[in-house]
């Protein structure tokens, strides 16, 4: 019988009605008691790591979760982490970077409706997650509404529907229906040994551009952050007429802040060399995000800056695919 470790962190799945709205209140044991599915023959041990709405998750909590998996790695065949959905993808991406060389599944799940409610997606998600955690596969996965996605590719798309998550720019790994797993593809196996690398620098900011963005915002960012992710438009580029952002971006880079250009478009990634608006900013030492999603970029940049602030080294880390986070090969000017 497979031995699994369930690590509970809170979220709606573990929430109960509080005086001021839903609040995480169930323990890992409560979750399993509600679940009570006898069709799965697994030996589940549980541990409550924290009990918070995932809106309150901070990078330090990602580290706690990664450490818990690492500490227990040899004792279990697979891991299930129950988590709030709001920042679940940030956590799943961060775990994908901090836990390199996983030869066992680490499955992150949650729900849109508490497990204690009559109609809930929690029981299916938990059951699917436990089932998938028994598989002979390595990596961090998100299992939600019957979909299995790589931890670096899941994005929360819907606030209320059960199909809250999509796998962006990478097909689902598998689908689960009535306790049957149908694979579409599988990450290749490797011979790596598990390493825990929790170096994280949280001084990262995401600036979402909109027409009218005031260039002076960069003066504040320069003081507070070591890395700035500019979520630009379409294929990428920044405005250089009227409220010209280019001089401020150059200043930021000259002062040693790492600047990464990404796009507000979720699908297909950017190509900074297509338009003049892109090429102008591409002349500077900016990092390209390809088709990585925002959640993965934030976690990866924090992880990279935890090791080095050297722009060349950070660029090398970010622009190298890791844990299936990036699939685009770089377009260059010629
Ligand atoms: N569905 C959920 O889990 C939402 C909740 N606010 C959380 O992220 O913890």
UniProtKB/TrEMBL annotation:
<dbReference type="InterPro" id="IPR037152">
    <property type="entry name" value="L-asparaginase_N_sf"/>
</dbReference>
<feature type="active site">
    <location>
        <position position="85"/>
    </location>
</feature>
<keyword id="KW-0378">Hydrolase</keyword>
<dbReference type="InterPro" id="IPR040919">
    <property type="entry name" value="Asparaginase_C"/>
</dbReference>
<dbReference type="Pfam" id="PF17763">
    <property type="entry name" value="Asparaginase_C"/>
</dbReference>
<comment type="similarity">
    <text>Belongs to the asparaginase 1 family.</text>
</comment>
<dbReference type="InterPro" id="IPR027473">
    <property type="entry name" value="L-asparaginase_C"/>
</dbReference>
<protein>
    <recommendedName>
        <fullName>asparaginase</fullName>
        <ecNumber>3.5.1.1</ecNumber>
    </recommendedName>
</protein>
<dbReference type="InterPro" id="IPR027474">
    <property type="entry name" value="L-asparaginase_N"/>
</dbReference>
<dbReference type="InterPro" id="IPR006033">
    <property type="entry name" value="AsnA_fam"/>
</dbReference>
<dbReference type="InterPro" id="IPR027475">
    <property type="entry name" value="Asparaginase/glutaminase_AS2"/>
</dbReference>
<dbReference type="InterPro" id="IPR006034">
    <property type="entry name" value="Asparaginase/glutaminase-like"/>
</dbReference>
<feature type="domain" description="Asparaginase/glutaminase C-terminal">
    <location>
        <begin position="203"/>
        <end position="317"/>
    </location>
</feature>
<dbReference type="InterPro" id="IPR041725">
    <property type="entry name" value="L-asparaginase_I"/>
</dbReference>
<feature type="active site">
    <location>
        <position position="12"/>
    </location>
</feature>
<dbReference type="InterPro" id="IPR036152">
    <property type="entry name" value="Asp/glu_Ase-like_sf"/>
</dbReference>
<dbReference type="Pfam" id="PF00710">
    <property type="entry name" value="Asparaginase"/>
</dbReference>
<dbReference type="InterPro" id="IPR020827">
    <property type="entry name" value="Asparaginase/glutaminase_AS1"/>
</dbReference>
<feature type="domain" description="L-asparaginase N-terminal">
    <location>
        <begin position="3"/>
        <end position="188"/>
    </location>
</feature>
């Amino acid at each position: 019988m497979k031995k699994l470790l369930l690590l509970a962190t809170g979220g709606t799945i573990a929430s109960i009605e509080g005086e001021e709205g839903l609040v995480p209140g169930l323990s890992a044991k409560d979750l399993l008691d509600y679940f009570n599915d006898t069709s799965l023959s697994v030996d589940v041990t549980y541990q409550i790591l924290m009990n918070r709405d995932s809106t309150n998750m901070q990078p330090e909590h990602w580290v706690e979760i990664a450490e818990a998996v690492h500490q227990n790695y040899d004792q279990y065949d697979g891991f299930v982490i129950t988590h709030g959905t709001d920042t679940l993808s940030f956590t799943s991406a961060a775990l994908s970077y901090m836990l390199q060389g996983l030869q066992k599944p680490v499955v992150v799940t949650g729900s849109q409706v508490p497990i204690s409610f009559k109609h809930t997606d929690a029981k299916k998600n938990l059951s699917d997650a436990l089932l998938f955690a028994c598989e002979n596969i390595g990596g961090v996965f998100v299992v939600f509404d019957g979909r299995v996605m790589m931890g670096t590719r899941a994005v929360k798309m819907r606030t209320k529907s059960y199909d809250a998550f999509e796998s962006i720019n990478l097909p689902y790994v598998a689908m689960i229906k009535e306790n049957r797993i149908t694979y579409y593809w599988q990450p290749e196996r490797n011979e790596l040994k598990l390493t825990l690398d929790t170096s994280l620098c949280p001084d990262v900011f995401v600036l979402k551009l909109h027409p009218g963005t005031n260039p002076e915002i960069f003066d504040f960012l320069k003081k507070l952050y070591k890395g700035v992710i500019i979520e630009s438009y379409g294929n990428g580029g920044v405005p250089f007429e009227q409220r010209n952002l280019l001089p401020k971006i150059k200043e930021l880079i000259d002062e040693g802040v790492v600047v990464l250009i990404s796009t507000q478009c979720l699908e297909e990634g950017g190509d900074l060399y297509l338009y003049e608006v892109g090429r102008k900013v591409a002349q500077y030492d900016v990092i390209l995000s390809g088709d990585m999603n925002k959640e993965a970029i934030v976690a990866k940049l924090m992880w990279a800056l935890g090791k080095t602030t050297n722009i060349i080294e950070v660029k090398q880390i970010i622009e190298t695919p890791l844990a299936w986070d990036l699939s685009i090969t770089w377009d260059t000017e010629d």
